[in-house]
Amino acid sequence: MTKRLLSFGHGYSARALAAELLEHGWTIYGTTRDAEKAEALAEEGVQPIIWGQGDIEPILAKSTHILISAGPDEAGDPVLNTYGDLIRDYAAQLDWAGYLSTTGVYGDHGGGWVDEETPLAPSTRRGEMRQAAEAQWRAVPGLPLHIFRLAGIYGPGRGPFAKVRRGTARRIIKPGQVFSRIHVEDIAQVLAASIARPDPGAVYNLCDDDPAPPEEVIAYAAELLGLPVPEAVDFDAAEMTPMARSFYAESKRVRNDRIKEALGVTLRYPDYRAGLQALAAAEKPEV
């Protein structure tokens, strides 16, 4: 039986998963709002769907799996708002459903550790919307839902190298601040492992083994590029957008034991050093 994934909001992480599944004969459908992105998806072997256009029911009716990457907004979850009735109609026939959330739902823990059993207490509006969206998806009857809470994502084309090269990177210093991260290839392998071992209702944290201060990551990226380490700027004095500043409102270390124990995952990039080294080698940056 052909396995078919319908990916709502087929972005960076979903494209990494699709690359793995296509090698194993899957059929992948991906929604996008952008016609140019639709052309790029088609070149990658994904069958593109322009968001809100045409009849998606025939595709959903023959899909075996769905992935939701689209983020919520003030109106709620856009996928359920647009296609909720259809998803409810076909939920019980799906083998697997995945929702990509964020570790931001845990809120601020002053650098302390959190795991999947930690009560949700988001401290930002974005985190609150994610918590609400998780609840919306849990409420869909019969849906074999798996929730994946992602830490900061990096990978090819996304990471500190571009800012360091441009000379716009800064090492923002906020004592005690740590973030968890995850390489996009590790996101893809965790999702694939979950598809192979479905456990409806499960929640997984997706992060590496080494929560670290952001200034360390910037400094290491500069070292790999052979460029000067960017200046250190005190957080309180730094000029930052409200969005950028909000990321520093939370500090926590996220545990990833469950993806290893329940899904048998061995991270390809267990810390940011391994991940950035691989990116530097692959990009062969011109310095």
Automatic annotation (TrEMBL):
Domain of life assignment: Bacteria
InterPro entries, per the entry: Epimerase_deHydtase, NAD(P)-bd_dom_sf
Signal peptide: none
Keyword NAD annotated: yes
Record's keyword terms, sorted: NAD
The NAD-dependent epimerase/dehydratase domain, residue ranges: 9-206
Pfam (any one): Epimerase
Descriptive protein name: NAD-dependent epimerase/dehydratase domain-containing protein
